[in-house]
DNA sequence: TCAAATT
């Protein structure tokens, strides 16, 4: 299929221009008004080709619909636009002037998180007239950058207006980092009409060696896979070209989870499950776990760096039952929100984490003592020093214990079913377990005593002994200790889960204790 | 080597 000569001019021959920042007023007017462009199919911009065809008008039907609230009417063939890269402090009323220049607005809705109400940084916009949408897209899409944003505004038909495109979107891997959108376009062009071609880049603008290519049809995408996947090895690439369908949203979520697992060194059977059998419920667990981990990093990492904002807010939005928490008031009294986190976005992360813990049943269905007793019991008191790292730490461990203590089994307990019984605490003197049941733990937090150590490992089974070694002279922890389980499987599970568990700048070392009599060869 | 976001 021949492309227009227009396309030929889209090469990335010049270094990316800095994006123009719109001034305080979002309304373009006078000399700064958006340039009038012919209705285009291919919009040039920094890192992306975006050929965005509008859905065809319904044949001959010119019926109208009336907005229930503002009474505006829209054409039957109106296009719902997705607006992206909106600063989170802009609401509908702030955005209206910007978009009204292109026509009367039928509906403009800023997307909010359903639980937290948090602005998602994007919106849907429907004009009364189809033509207005086309004008707005041509004038704004990738053309302007709203104040505070680093990337240009997105104005394009919402996914709902077409099929979303997931079934015709390809991921291209093993490109070399010098290849531009233009190069990728050339490569994929023979197999169909390309609607979008994006090379993924890091913050520095350097290619990540992969790209997305969206064809107009699934069949075209499929033929590109057949023709190109593995067909060649780009100079400098470590293996042959990868061409496959891009991840679905679900897969992306899973991928992010896996990254979190990698990042935080968590492994918990109950949480690992969603990789096989994905469920919202499991997702909620994972999200929470990640939130907890984020809290434990509070003093070292900017949470917004660790997680996309949407994720952070989702984390807080679900309690352990996978349901939205009803009250937003802390009830547990376990800990106060970390005082060290002062970024405005952050309290909303931390508070819900604490809140969400209230979703834990106070009594087991089987009549055993409350799970809460297990994890509240003997938690360190940090009230004498500033509630910073230690406080978040406390939350972190408390949280880990909650999950694993409530769901220690390798299968998720369906909601409403009897929960597995938490492992019994057998208080003891220094008891050593059988071979393979005794762990050596290093890099413990200074504040951890025997009890905290036990708390940390209870989720993995019955702890028959826990001992933190103390310096006799100073009565300070030596930051290592021993934990014994009653069976080797628990010990192994604990190693899996906790070895490498990051606390502040350090990672726990969790390994089998060397048997006393295991004489080393030399 | 899988995006920032799609009610």
Automatic annotation (TrEMBL):
User: Keyword annotations for this protein?
Assistant: Cytoplasm, mRNA processing, Nucleus, Repeat, RNA-binding
Primary localisation category: cytoplasm
Tell me the segments the record calls region Disordered.
1-38
Composition skew (Polar residues), residue ranges: 1-10
Tell me where on the tree of life, at the top rank, the source sits: Eukaryota
Q: Cellular component GO terms, alphabetically?
A: cytoplasm; nucleus; ribonucleoprotein complex
| UniProt cross-references to InterPro entries, sorted A to Z | CELF3/4/5/6_RRM1, Hud_Sxl_RNA, Nucleotide-bd_a/b_plait_sf, RBD_domain_sf, RRM_dom
Q: Which CDD domains match?
A: RRM1_CELF3_4_5_6, RRM2_CELF3_4_5_6, RRM3_CELF3_4_5_6
Entry's Gene Ontology BP terms: mRNA processing
Query: What is a single Pfam family found in this protein's UniProt entry?
Result: RRM_1
Ranges for the RRM domain?
Answer: 79-160, 168-248, 437-515
PROSITE patterns on file: RRM
**Molecular function per GO:** RNA binding
What does the similarity note say? Belongs to the CELF/BRUNOL family.
PANTHER family in alphabetical order: RNA BINDING PROTEIN
Supply the name of the protein. CUGBP Elav-like family member 5a isoform X4
Question: What is the protein's species of origin?
Answer: Chanos chanos (Milkfish)
Q: Which lineage?
A: Eukaryota, Metazoa, Chordata, Craniata, Vertebrata
